Amino acid sequence: MAQRPPSAAVLVLHGGRETGTEPPPPGPLNLPGVRMRPFVRAVGRAARAVGGNVLVTPVRYGHRGWNGDRADPFHDAVAALDALREEAGDDLPVVLLGHSMGARAALRAAGHPLVRGVVGLAPWCPPEDPVAQLAGRDIVLVHSDRDRLTSPRATRSLTARARGAGARTCMVTVRGGDHAMLRRASAWHRLTTGLVTGLLGSGSLPGPVGAALALPPTAGATEGILDLDLDLGLGPGPDPGRFRARARTRSRAY
Asked: What pLDDT, on the 0 to 100 scale, is given for residue 2?
């Protein structure tokens, strides 16, 4: 019996490195990929609970790094979207879920006709990256205030720039979290699952997120910036003072 085509899809893009033309290591050696497995499972469970045939699948990278103007993971994301379009047609709603470098790739690929929205976790948002392709999409970016690898300030800036370009945007701050999403892991997972299913229409977005996405393009740069604990009611976070930033002397991984 032929497999039924998906009614919606979530493509998951893990992090990587600033440079690296070698393929990602296989299986459990690919730590950025392993980091996203709990999100794949959580989103998959939530999608099955509401019915429908929602495909939740990681995007395979040909190279480990972004690699400057090559933007390798962006092209991998577009190739995965094109394959979905060929399989399921032009009306398949897709949400891109990316972490760090994967969030950067998701944002760049969001102009694809299938993409309805992007959920970016600890995104890498260089100030020179374009935002015109985000017009008409729902963009929710989640960032820890303690991230020492990617910049919460850059994420805030991209949130405002994208709204000005015609996207519906929101940023959620996770107090006391970290770049790897290990601190407060359950909150990251619950929030991400609610955001992805909400953007697909399989669930309800948290009210403050929906209100932020409805802000006009002329809204101020500080509007649409939410606090996970104060605005979304997921409970008080840990004391951020408990965590120390660790010096990073190795090459940057995203």
From this structure: 53
- First-to-last alpha carbon distance for the chain, in angstroms, is 41
SS3 state at 196: helix
Q: Is 71 helix (H, G, I), strand (E, B) or coil?
A: coil
Cα–Cα distance, 245 to 146 (Å, whole number): 8
What's the pLDDT tens digit per position in 10-57?
A: 999 999 999 999 999 999 999 999 999 999 999 999 988 877 789 999
Q: Give the C-alpha separation, 44 to 194, whole Å.
A: 12
Residue-level pLDDT at 63: 97
Greatest pairwise CA separation for the chain in angstroms: 57
Closest by CA to 67, choosing from 18, 24, 104, is: 18
Question: What stretch of H or E contains 162?
Answer: helix 152-164
Q: How many angstroms separate the CA atoms of 139 and 215, rounded?
A: 12
Q: Residue 17 has what DSSP assignment?
A: B
Write the CA distances from 151 to 115, 124, 170, 241, 242, integer angstroms: 25, 7, 16, 19, 20
Average pLDDT value over all residues in the chain: 90
